[in-house]
Design brief:
Among the domains are: 51 residues; 47 residues. The protein contains four helices and two strands, in the order ββαααα. A two-stranded antiparallel sheet has the order 1-2.
């Protein structure tokens, strides 16, 4: 059912009917949509909180108690089930005792810097002048503005002003 709407135009032609064959030529217009699956939001824990001995002790006790409780079940006989129980106990203890990480801010893009945008506009206007009249002065002006744009990129990256 997932791909039902992918077939747009299906037709069979009776091109071999004069030789008594039951084979047909089939044409299909196919619309294929390839999408990247959405990422599932994960909980991110601040594991540095375990440096605090109080939190570490509470987490360890909760993990041990939950794991023992899960392993007391009768179907906990093989290693795979024991490992799955450990993962479950770890997730439950983490939710209860480990704080979540705060959202990190996205890195500021260089193109958002006003100095870079003004230098880029200056290069574009110099290029327009040079395209209209290819004189030596316009060429030198364009090259100078390109150098100043490069300097602005270097400054934005943390270079020397």
């Amino acid at each position: 059912m997932k791909w039902k709407n992918s077939l747009k135009n299906c037709e069979a032609y009776n091109s071999f009917s004069n030789i008594g064959s039951d084979h047909r030529i089939v044409t299909v217009k196919l619309k294929l949509s390839l999408r990247v699956p959405r990422k599932v939001a994960r909980i991110r824990y601040d594991w540095n909180a375990l440096k605090d001995s109080n939190i570490q002790e509470q987490y360890t006790i909760a993990l041990r108690n939950r794991y023992q409780l899960l392993c007391n079940e009768p179907e906990c006989s093989n290693a795979t089930k024991k490992y799955q129980n450990f993962i479950t106990a770890h997730e439950e203890a983490s939710i209860e005792h480990i704080p979540q990480k705060t959202a990190t801010r996205k890195k500021k893009r260089m193109s958002d810097d006003t100095r870079i945008t003004s230098a880029r506009e200056s290069v574009n206007s110099a290029f327009t002048e040079y395209a209209a009249c290819t004189s030596v002065d316009n060429h030198d002006n364009l090259q100078g503005r390109k150098k100043s744009l490069q300097i602005m990129y270097d400054v934005s990256r943390g270079g020397v002003e």
